[in-house]
Structure formats: structure tokens, C-alpha cells
Amino acid sequence: MFCAGFLLATVSILTPLPAGAFELFGYRLWGSASDDANTPDAFPYVPTLTLSGGDDPLKERLTAASILVSEAEKAPSGEAGLIARALNDFDRLIAQLYVEGRYGGTVDIKIAGLPLQSALQRGSLPGPRPVPVTIAISAGPLFTFGDVRIGAEGAAASQLSTDPGFWGLAPGTTADSSKVLVAERQILNTLRARGFPKARIVTRDITADHANDHLDVTLVANAGEQARFGAVTVTGTKVTDPNFVVAQAMIPEGSVYDPEILAAAQKRLNDLGIFASVNMVEADTIGPDGALPVNIEVSERKRHVLGAGATWSSTEGGGFEAYWRRRNLFGQGELLSVEGSVGRLGNSSFKDMEYAAKIAFEKPGVFGPLTSFSTSLSAKQEAPNAYTSRSATYDAYLKREFTDQFSGRAGFEIAFLDETDAYGKKTYLLTGLPADLTYDTRDDKLNPSKGLLATAFAEPAYDIRNRNMMMFMKGSVSSYAALDESKRFILAGRLAAGSIVGPQVDDIPAGRRFFAGGGGSIRGYAYRNVGPRRNGEVTGGRSLIEMSGEVRVRLTETFGAVAFVDAGNVYNASVPDFSRPFKIGIGAGIRYFTPIGPLRLDVAVPLSPEKGDPDFAIYLGLSQAF
Fold it and tell me: Is residue 4 pLDDT above 70, yes or no?
């Protein structure tokens, strides 16, 4: 099986180049580097970097900091361009030596045999082309922190620790210049977190003691006046109600200033999806009453959105989907969307193709800033190999965010289903009260390296037409852990389980039974082709177990590799029958990392295939598998 997806009008992956050169995802497929130079008066050179008094790791870091080395293939414009690049490089390399705690190091750059200063005065460069450029670096001694003093003025005196070690500046440790900058930021952030928004460093005295190879540091902070949140105003709105923006921001006027409150307000407003940018602008001065006014600057996004997408599979045929959305419908963040899709194009007769249509409405802040309301009306025809289902559904939900990581929904739905499967033809009229909880601490939704995602779903439902009561339940937990500080090696695991309590399998709608297999389940097996069978046909079941484990390795900044094992099964009973062996799929894949998430290509093999399962399966998608 081969699956491919195409996202239209969203991501551009081809970069226009001059004739004779072509790039895909930033990698040259043909053509030479000179094809895209197009630099007027290009002036090529050959750099050489040497280091004395340091080790290989230090040389690697200095080489990485040098633009003379990293940009050598991109020739500068003329001799002046090369000299300007060398001057910039000198500053960068000295700064890198300071970051390494090397305050007695030197950098000597020569162009065509001339010292940099002489080349700058002369203007023209002798010798052959390309010009040789030498970068000779002497690392010098490694400095450590010597006399370090942390002080505070005014109200800050009681708010700060004066222990240098608390701020990462302990005497005797390597005097990395970045540690001083980090310490300054931490001091100011600590004061701001305690209600002093105008805190500043008033004394910064840094002295390199070359006689003792010490760096002496004195930092003195002034907290200024403690502030309370003052009036909150809004600018930049055209359609949006400013009072709605203030209410959603939830900045408590009169409470002690706290930057975390502003950060949470900014995130909450960005999550509405109606603003292109949101900025919290604090007043320059604190008022005589201690109040600090805050202005929320916003820029609204376009209200109308059109989108389309296409998919293709050798087993399911082609598919097409499109949607129209109207943001900020009534000026308070409302969203109206109309969606439609068609599937199995070219692989089924017209009556067996898949269709879906949906109209949905969302309203944030319906019962306060942390709540939202959503409702939708949809109709669809599903036609996997196991069954055909035609349904119409109406639902409505209330959502509540309890914390940044924890949220829940509860609602009502009514659905009419007309289905044909291995048990024959049957109709259902379901009413239910669905509810779910989500706990999410992942550091990245599309490519997590740490954290946890846990979901729990339950829905008591009643089939009015057939007079059957049933309970649908499902939960899943995904966990992620990096094995090294650079997050190049990541372990990821997922466990999912579900149960349907109620009547026999044939009394439960096929579209609501459990099936397994496919890209989001047990890779290697055909989509929804794992489960109990009747006369050789998959019927679905009343309980489910799925497990997945992955080892993710980042090979370069743009490419990674994955090895994985998926396992699980579906059972007739409401409780899994572990006497039946798991279906297991194994495989490997590659990842191409983009700004919007990793592109995923996985190849999986089923270890115990049955009727309808392929020898192997290929999956292509955006983001990690889970």
C-alpha cells in the first residue's frame, strides 16, 4: 500500500532558481553553486583557520562561528566585500573566545598575505585569485570568575540573593561571558516576577585580570517601584469588540504586576485564531498611584479563509477536500466553517465513493474567558472494505480550560445511521452525552521531545430505534523523553485502550465499533483491517488495545530516522481477551524537519497478515506518527 498527501496553498517547497539549477527542500538536485551566486563582481577566496593553545572541540566551535569559513562558497562582492566580511568575522571570533572564557586570546586575519588592517587601508589586494585568507587564532589562558559581587538598590535589596553561585557566577568556575548575560536576565526577571516591572541593572563592572586569569564582575540592580496592573486598553481592532479582547485577556486590574499574567493573556488571545499578532505594551512610567497601564496591540487576520487538499492511495483511490471559514463572525471570535470532501475517486463506483459535508460554529468566551461553545451538523458516507455507513449527526459541546495543560468537554449528540456490513443491513438512531478530558504537557505538538499527552473519552448513548443502551469509552497516553541534552535521541511510547459496554456486536453501529490497522494504529496492516471476522470479513469489536514504541534519532538539522514497533488487537467482548495474540507491525522511517513540523515517511511490515493486508505499507504525512 502506498499513501500520499498533498496540502494545497499552504506550504511552498520549491525555491525559484536561475536556469540550470534546481533545489527541493533546500537541497540542490542539479546545478552548481555558481549557478545561484549572481553576485555582482564576485570575489572568490579560500579560507584557512588554525588554532593554537586549544583543543579540537574549541576549534570546531570557532570554525562554526566564522562566516569567512561558513560563507566561503558564497563569494562576496568585490575586494571591499571580502574585507567587510573579514572585519565582521574578527568581531565574531573575539566574541566566541569570550564565550569560551578566553579573554587573553588573539585573532589574526590576513588577506592575500596582508594583515587585515593593512588590507583595509590599501583597498586593493595583490596576488592570484581566489585570494588566500588565513585566520590564526591563539586561544590564550582559560579565565575563571574571581571577585564577583551581586548588589541591589532600594526595594531590590530584600528581593535578591547576593550569592554569586545562585546566579551561576561562582568564583573558580569558567568565566563564560554568556553566563554574565544570563545572570543579568535572571536578576531582572526575578524582580519583574515580584512586581517590579521597571527593574534595571545600574552598575555593570566587568574586569579581566590578566595577571591571575580571573574575570571580576560587579552587578548592581535597582528594582524601581512595585506596580499594580492599571487600566487595560486595546488598539488595532477593526471588527473585533475591544471589550471582548479585554475580557479574554483576563488581566486583573489592581493586582500586583506579574509578567506571567501578561504571557498567559497573550497566549490566550493568540489561541483565538483571529489575530495575526498580539503585543502587550506596558506604559513607560508607573502612575502616582502605583498603577501600570497596559495596552494590548493587535493586528487582525483576514476574516475569510478558503482551503483545499488532496490525497491518494493505491488501495483507496483519490480524495479531495475543501473548506470555507469566516473568522470573527460577530466580532467576538466566532468561527463559522463549511467543509466538504469526496474519497475513493477512481477506485470505486459512484455509489460506493465516500462523501462528507459539515457546517460548524464555534463561540469562545461563552461563559467566561476559559469556556467555549461549539456545534455542528454533518452528513457522510463511509465505505471502507469492512462496511458501508451513511449517517447524519448533530452535536453541541461546551469546553472548559482548567489550566494551560488540562481541559475538558461535555456535550450532546444525535445521529442517524444506515449501515451495511457482514451482519447485514440495519439502521440506528443514537442519542448520546459525550465527554472527554485532555492533559497535555508536550513541548511541541508536532515534534515533541518531552512531556505527556493523555486523553479520556466516555459517552453513554441510547439507540432509540432498536432500544439498546450502550457506553463508549476510550483512553490513550503518549509519553516522550529525550536521552541527551541536545534532544537528538528521543524515546516515544503510546498506549490506547477502549471498551464498549452494552449489546452484542451486531447491535452496535459499525461506524462506532473498534477497528485497528493503518497509519494511526498498527502500521503495516491495511486500514481498519484488524479485528474479529465473520465469514472472513472484519466486523469490528467491543474492546481495543494498541501499543506503539519509537526510537527517534535526529541525524542532521534537517533529517532524522525512526525505528518502531506497533502492536494490538480488537476483541468481540467488552474486555480484551489476552489469550488472542497481538498483531505486530515493525518498521522504520525517515523525517524531514520543516518549520511547520516533520514530514514523515514510514515503511512497515505486518508480522501476521490476514486477508486484505499488504506485504508492506508506506505512510507519508506531516508530524510524527503520535
Answer: no
On whether the CB atoms of residues 377 and 394 are closer than 8 A, the answer is yes
Domains, the chain: 1-7+302-383 (no CATH), 37-138 (3.10.20), 144-222 (3.10.20.310), 228-300 (3.10.20.310), 385-622 (2.40.160.50)
**Predicted confidence (pLDDT) at residue 16 exceeds the cutoff of 60:** no
**Cα separation, 217 vs 205, whole angstroms:** 6
Q: What is the pTM of this model?
A: 0.75
Is residue 298 within 8 Å of 275, Cβ to Cβ? yes
Q: Rounded distance, CA 193 to CA 186, Å? A: 10
Cis peptide before 130 (omega within 30 of 0): yes
- What does the angle CA 558 – CA 562 – CA 563 come to, to the nearest 5 degrees? 165
CA 126 to chain centre: 51
Q: What is the β-pairing status of strands 45-52 and 489-501? A: unpaired
Q: Give one DSSP letter per residue of 45-64, joined into a string.
A: EEEEEEEESS-HHHHHHHHH
Rank 77-81, 224-228, 319-323, 493-497 by mean pLDDT and report only the highest. 493-497
Over the stretch 536-566, which tens digit does the pLDDT of each residue have? 889 999 999 999 999 999 999 899 999 999 9
Q: Which of 433, 387, 426 is nearest to 504 (CA)?
A: 426
Q: Cell 551581586 identifies what position?
A: 150
Buried b (16+ CB within 10 A) or exposed e, 474-500: bbbebbbebeeeebeebebebbbbbbb
Q: Residue 490 above 60 pLDDT?
A: yes
3-class DSSP assignment, residue 17: coil
Which residue shows C-alpha cell 490497522? Answer: 517
pLDDT tier at 382 (50, 70, 90 boundaries)? confident
**Cβ(360)–Cβ(337) under 8 Å?**
yes
Q: Looking up cell 469556556, which residue turns up? A: 371
How far is residue 579's CA from residue 189's CA, in Å, rounded to a whole number?
58
* Residue carrying C-alpha cell 486595546: 234
Q: Order the strands of the 131-138 sheet from edge to edge.
A: 45-52, 131-138, 106-111, 114-115
